[in-house]
């Protein structure tokens, strides 16, 4: 039976740096997740781990076998060992801009998979990132 670890989440938006910042506790310690946006579309993610011995943040491109699932009000870490359909060392994210949902036909939905290893994106929905909300 797969297990799900719900992470503590601290979210805020800073319009000056166009980023969302999340603080999470994962299996290997404290993670700082930085989501870069231009202005609404996700450009990239950066992950930092807290090195408690040096008391500083260290940039990393690895979640080991893990995956982060990031949504409007949820942040979860899952092991890819338990979910063979998903790829480890990835961030699965959904569109968190609910202010423009009525205009969804006029813009692209910002939901995708970000692969940390090579900083590339993959589609959750196939070839078309513009999908109807259900």
Automatic annotation (TrEMBL):
Residues of the KIB1-4 beta-propeller domain: 18-103
UniProt xrefs under Pfam families: Beta-prop_KIB1-4
Listed PANTHER family: OS07G0183000 PROTEIN-RELATED
Protein's recorded name: KIB1-4 beta-propeller domain-containing protein
């Amino acid at each position: 039976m797969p297990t799900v670890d719900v992470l503590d989440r601290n979210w805020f938006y800073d319009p000056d740096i166009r980023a969302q910042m999340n603080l999470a506790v994962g299996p290997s310690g404290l993670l700082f997740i930085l989501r870069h946006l231009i202005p609404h579309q996700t450009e990239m993610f950066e992950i930092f781990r807290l090195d408690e011995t040096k008391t500083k943040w260290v940039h990393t491109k690895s979640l080991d076998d893990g995956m982060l699932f990031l949504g409007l009000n949820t942040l979860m870490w899952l092991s890819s060992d338990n979910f063979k359909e998903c790829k480890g060392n990835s961030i699965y994210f959904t569109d968190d801009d609910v202010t423009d949902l009525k205009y969804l036909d006029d813009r692209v939905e910002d939901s995708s998979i970000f692969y940390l290893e090579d900083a590339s994106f993959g589609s959750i929905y196939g070839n078309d990132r513009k999908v109807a909300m259900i």
